[in-house]
Amino acid sequence: MGYGDFIVMRDLNFSVNRGDIFIIMGASGCGKSTLLKILIGLKRPLSGQVFYGDSNFWEAHPSEREQMMRGSGILYQYGALWSSMSLAENIGLTLQRYTKLNHRQIQEIVSLKLSLVGLAGFEGYYPSNISGGMKKRAALARAIVMDPDILFFDEPSAGLDPISARSLDDLILELRDSMGTTIIIVTHELASIFAIGDNSIFLDVDLKTMTASEDPNRLLAESENPTVRRFLTRGKEGAVEEKL
Ligand SMILES: Nc1ncnc2c1ncn2[C@@H]1O[C@H](COP(=O)(O)OP(=O)(O)O)[C@@H](O)[C@H]1O
Ligand SMILES: [Mg+2]
């Protein structure tokens, strides 16, 4: 994958199991967000293929791709709620656009999703009236409004204090456990990686390819790759400061 002549990563080969929390990790600039864009249909790979089940995603007609993405939800790094809309309006928007549900039905689903993320009763609040952690939760409520099979997160805990980040991790685990959602997360937060990751890949920014594909806790215990080790033991093993 890359931009024009600029190759970001090559020879990536991995599978994501249904119901797993799958972590895409690596140093800043290694290509995590680029890979996510390729997986969600925002950017075509320079070569190679992406399969959802048996469907070859990038060979499919754009309308089929869009259809396939209806079954997924996305939470971006900077939440990106519409500041001029209440939480209820933000979360209800997709339902308004893509379903034939009436206003009352939409409000019911919105309230249900808000309560799932711990924001019951916040329907009428505006993004500027709530904390960063609450904005993330609201953005998460919006991402799950269509009951997605797959949820994508790009650096979900970026900008959060450690306690809010932990409770977001707990929430992600809860969602997976209660709804069976497959979750693909881009992050370099070690606490999240070890707390919630079932499986992971490590993108090596210097080698421009993936050098590990494993349960992160197992990688930590067993990997002998120095770059992977340095990444997973930041500040604990050796004195080398990782550039992040
Ligand atoms: N639209 C773009 N055009 C050209 N290069 C880009 C673009 N977006 C990202 N890049 C470059 O691609 C590399 C990977 O970026 P990115 O996927 O954002 O990394 P990460 O999310 O791991 O920090 C970086 O060198 C970045 O500068
Ligand atoms: Mg990124």
Structural overview:
The chain has a six-stranded mixed β-sheet. Mean pLDDT is 91; it is low at 239-244. It contains nine helices and ten strands. 39% of the residues lie in helices and 16% in strands. Bound molecules: adenosine-5'-diphosphate and magnesium ion. Magnesium ion binds at residues 32-33. Magnesium ion binds next to helix 1.
Can you write the helix and strand succession as a string? EEEHEEHEHHHEHEHEEHH
How much β-strand is present in the residues? 15-25%
What is the CATH class designation of the largest domain?
Alpha Beta
User: Which compounds are bound in this model?
Assistant: adenosine-5'-diphosphate, magnesium ion
CATH superfamily of the largest domain: P-loop containing nucleotide triphosphate hydrolases
**Average pLDDT figure:** 91
- Low-pLDDT regions: 239-244
Number of separate strands: 10
The dominant shape is globular
What is the count of DSSP helices, taking H or I runs of 4+ residues? 9
Radius of gyration over alpha carbons?
A: 19 Å
> How helix-rich are the residues, as a percent range?
25-40%
Span from first to last CA?
21 Å
Overall domain count: 2
**CATH architect. name of the largest domain:** 3-Layer(aba) Sandwich
CATH topology of the largest domain: Rossmann fold
Largest sheet: 6 strands, mixed
Specify the structural class. alpha/beta
- Largest beta sheet: strand ordering: 6-7-8-3-9-10
